[in-house]
Amino acid sequence: MKQYSTHIPGGSHWSLRLRRGTSMKLTDPKGGANVGMLFYNPENLLERYNAPDTLKCQHTFKLTRGNCLYSDMGRIFCSIIEDNLGWHETISGNINANTVSARWGKRDYQKDRNDWHQNGYDAFLVELAKYGLGRADMAANINWFSKVTADKNGNMLLEEGHSQPGSSLTLRFEMDTLVLLHTCPHPLNHSDTYPDNGVDITMDQAKPVGENDFCRNFRPENKRGFENNALYYLGIQE
Length: 238
Description:
globular
């Protein structure tokens, strides 16, 4: 099977291992989606996504085409090879159960079944537990399709209407990567009702990375990241 497609409903979570050389396209079908995501090295789960290094080494506050997503070992989990939205954030973290209950009312699966209100923090904990990980292994996550800015007083604000129906981005995986994701509300979302926005996912084989690759050459630091990946996989047959 070369290509695989699925839909993750709103308020859900998922995890899977992606091989290097594969791609993952995320599409917001209705608009207003938020996809929290974390990365881990499946061969060494202590190596995980590092938001501060990802931002500072590429001199940016947002993520878009050309940016690479770094581990805390200086390697690149994946690159953003396509993006028609232009801004995704990785500083706000997750919404938790107390905040969800305060904003949209307390619901649980035992009473409300599929109409319950899941939160991003617990969603990640469920997926982490599948691999023997827990709270101490939680890292700062990405929130795809979400744009956060600051007002004149320094308060962070979620820009409403940022992601329109059909907004999409594509990740190319440069390492074997354990991917955790959820479709729970952004922590700065104050909508009147619990957001129920899912995401469409398509995975495929990516084209090989060449010397003139856009992401590789987007920043000088990215070239070093790709070199670190090459050293990590030295001697392994393609």
